[in-house]
Every structure is written in structure tokens, then in C-alpha cells.
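Weekly structure sync - notes
Attendees: PM, LS, DV (DV joined late)
Agenda: review two folding runs queued last week.

Item 1: First target. Sequence and C-alpha cells pasted below for the record.
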Amino acid sequence: MNHRFYGPEVGLFLNGETPPFLEKKFSFYKKIFAVDGAFYYLNRYGISVDYVIGDFDSLSISKKDVPLETLLLKTYDQRYTDFDKALNIIYHKGFLNINVWGASGMEQDHFLGNLSTALKYKKKLSIIFHDKHHFYFFSDKKTSFYHKKNKKVSLFPFPKVEGLYTYGLKYSIKKGLLKIGKNIGIRNEAYSQRIEINYKKGELLIFIER
């Protein structure tokens, strides 16, 4: 899945579930940002971190153990989550394409809060979440991508989507309405390699199986 904006990609690691693909070293990211305690698991696997962001309330490693080339960016404003503050910092450093790891898998209120924060930055940033099962993102009103046949593709309204059309999914949708509490579009399948998803109103979260 490609990002929406031209330019380099960065990695942002949160305090949720430890990413399962750490052996890849994430060398293709221009910069790596860690929110507070996420520095711990990255450091344990020998992954270099460029910036650590947060109030450091969960940073269990002594600052003397943090490499000199890693910058600590302390944030004080408790009105915003560390994820929100990290996105704001990354945006002002000129990066627009962000791969987020560790947003889910722990406390579910944090997960829902992370989704809400990502929606807040949707127009400014291209944010793709990753976990061991999926990658997922808030869709533009017109989205197309390539994926393997028979892989699961779930469409989740946030909280409502109108005028939904799909192409390339096993269970096609035309002039569809999705709404939390009524009908949602989870567990569909890729019928062809090219998938198109368009809608007219609302916000749509797309989950794509790895």
C-alpha cells in the first residue's frame, strides 16, 4: 500500500503490542520516532531510534543508556496524547508519510483514541497503521490499491459512510450505506489484484490482511 504524498516515509512506534517484524530493521524509513516506552523494545532489538517523544513517564531505560545520536523531545502538554504530540512534531519536521506500529494490541481505549487522532490529521498526513494481522488506514473518497487475491479486506465506517462503491472485492457494494450499529463491511475478500473503493460522504477505515 502506497502513501498518498510524495516524499520519504518515517516510522513511528507506540507503546502498544511489540511489532512482529523487527528483524527487518526498518532500514527503508528515513527516520524512526519512538513514543516514550516504545524506545525500550526498539533498543532491545538493536534498532536505532532518531527521536524519542513524550513525557517519559514509561521510559524504563536510564537516559545514560540512550545513544548520543538519539534526540529526546520532552512534551509537557497533558491535553494531548503522546501519539497526537508525535504526529504534530513529525509534521513540523516536514515528513508527511508515516508508518505507525504499536497502535493496537494493548489497552483498547488507547487503540480507539489512536484512530480518532489519526482521523484528526487525515488531511495533513498519510498515516498507515501496521500490526501482525493487517495494515489499515483512513481512506480518501477515491482509493485504489493492489493486493493478493483471496486476502481479507474489511471496510469499517467511522461512524458512517454513504454512496459506497467497490470494485475487485468478492462481495461488491454499489450505492452502499455503512453505519456502526447497523451494517458494516468486514471480512470481504480480494477478488482481483486491483481494488477500487469510492464513497461520497463520511469516513472509512480500511483493513487489509497481510
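Item 2: Second target, run right after the first with the same settings.
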Amino acid sequence: MNFKVLWADSTGVVDEGLQKLQLPRDIETWNVLQRLKAWLQGQPAPPPARPEYNHPIDWELVPAAPTRVTLGTNKGDIVLELLPTLAPGTVASFRQLVRDGYYNGKTFHRVVPNFVIQGGCPRGDGYGSLDFSLRSELPWVHYDRAGYVGMASAGNHTEGVQFFITHSPTPHLDGNYTIFARVVQGQNVFDAIAVGDRIERVVVQQ
């Protein structure tokens, strides 16, 4: 059965879906639908859209020294040390989201053994974000150990609210994903996280 012929008339449905999306919030869904539309039309896949970041740094939220944050989950607490010298804009945004209670109740939607756990998506499926994007901050630090906390993205300057924690050294992520924190306590907890586990509360330690 030729599915391309069967679904050829569906490009209008795809276009309708694209019109309902908002960038940069829905950037990943936008790129998936653009690839689907090209496939239905027999065209090569277009390059992914990468809108410019639009979220300036709030320097009042950038701590002068590393700050610890407790990520309370249904499996226990994970303590992160934020790294403002590496990623001031990302740290400021993360602190604002914590202050707003954004992460409370969010789930870990992606768990890859010996690689990462990922959470913070407003949709709970990895395709959601908010109406802003962050500048990529790619310092000299490498993903050379377990417990680094990075920002998920769909390409440079598309970071938003989703983050991941590494289970092991992941050198293929070097230079592509912002590192903004590291785990200093609770490795046994994040090692036990499974898909669907919840972030119950996030608190900045005083």
C-alpha cells in the first residue's frame, strides 16, 4: 500500500495544524509537521526552523556564587548546584521558573538508561515549551561525568524549560547543549527515576 498516495490529501490538515502553533513555544512540533508535509508532497525535508532567542538575561537573578536547588521528586530529593559562571542566562531563567512554581507537578517524560533523564515539559511528552527561547550557552566544560544538568533543545538558541540530567559521561553532547548545573546530592534518586515520575517541588536553598 502506498501510504504517501493514501495521505496525499492530508497536507491541508497539516497546514491547519501548523497555523495553530506558536513559535518558539511549539518549535519541535513545527519541525515535525514541516517534515511530514514535505514527505507527503514528495519533497526533501526542509532544514529545521531555529528562531532567534528572545529571552534577555535578568541579571538580578544571577547569583554571585554557585547556588543549590532541591529538586523534590516522588522518589526523593535531588540537590543541584547551579553554575552561573557557565550559563548566567539559563540559571536566571531556571531560578525564575522555580520562583514561579513552574516545575512543581511536572513529570519526567524521557528516561534512557545509562544516558539521561529528562523533564519539565508542559505537555508531558517532550514537544512542549513556553513562549520564549534562551540563548545557547556552550562553555568549555564537557559532559565528562554523570550528574551534569543540561538544557534540552531543538538546535542552538531554542532552549526553554526542559532539562536533562546525565547518567554517565556523554561526550557527544559537548558543544551542543548548555550545562547550567550539576548534581551534588541524590544520585541514587535520579538513577531510580522512571518515565512518569513527578517533580513535586523545587526550592532554592538559602
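Discussion on item 2: The first strand starts at residue 68 and ends at 73.
Action: LS to circulate a short write-up before next sync.
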